[in-house]
Amino acid sequence: MTTKISYAIAFLLGLAMIFLGARFFFSPEVATAAFGIRFNAHGDYSFHHIKGIRDIFSGVLLCALVLMKERRALGVMLVVATIIPVSDMITVLEKSYTNVQQAIPHIAATIICSVVGILLLTAKPQLKQPSK
């Protein structure tokens, strides 16, 4: 049961990452503000495209690993990928104009990735029932 819930959470996380990444392409100013930083692009959205494709890739990979039922690979990815929201949180908190409120999404992502990743890695493989 825990594995199914972990798969569901990971899949939803993947879909959320795809949405967040797409938002950096289609609404870069909104996405940047929601991320927790100010960025005056002066019409150059290169940073937004780099950030957007990173998020889309991460989301597609999460969803693919869930759909392929690659429990251990998904668990490893989530635990290792925790470095991304931790780094994002540090970046946000280093700004003089931000506070913990802007870092909450990054803190939540860190907790979700680490907990779900550990649950998937420590879950016992399910034995297949013989066909009758």
Account of the 3D structure:
It is a single chain. The chain has 132 residues and is mainly α. It has one domain (2-122). It is 76% helix and 0% strand. The chain contains six helices and no strands. It has helices at residues 2-26, 28-35, 46-67, 71-81, 83-93, 100-122. α1 packs antiparallel against α6. The longest helix is centred in the first third of the chain and has 25 residues, at 2-26. It is elongated, with a radius of gyration of 17 Å.
- How would a crystallographer describe the biggest sheet? none
Helix-strand category: mainly alpha
N-end to C-end Cα span:
24 Å
What's the gyration radius in Å? Answer: 17 Å
Number of discrete domains:
1
Averaged pLDDT = 92
The helix/strand order is: HHHHHH
Transmembrane segments: 7-26, 46-67, 74-92, 104-123
Pfam families: DUF4267 (PF14087)
Keywords: Membrane, Transmembrane, Transmembrane helix
Task: List the keywords.
single chain, 0% strand, elongated, 132 residues, mainly alpha
Quick summary:
InterPro entries: DUF4267. The chain has 132 residues and is an all-alpha fold.
List the helices and strands and how they pair.
Elements: H1 2-26, H2 28-35, H3 46-67, H4 71-81, H5 83-93, H6 100-122
Helix pairs in contact: 1-2, 1-3, 1-6, 4-6, 5-6
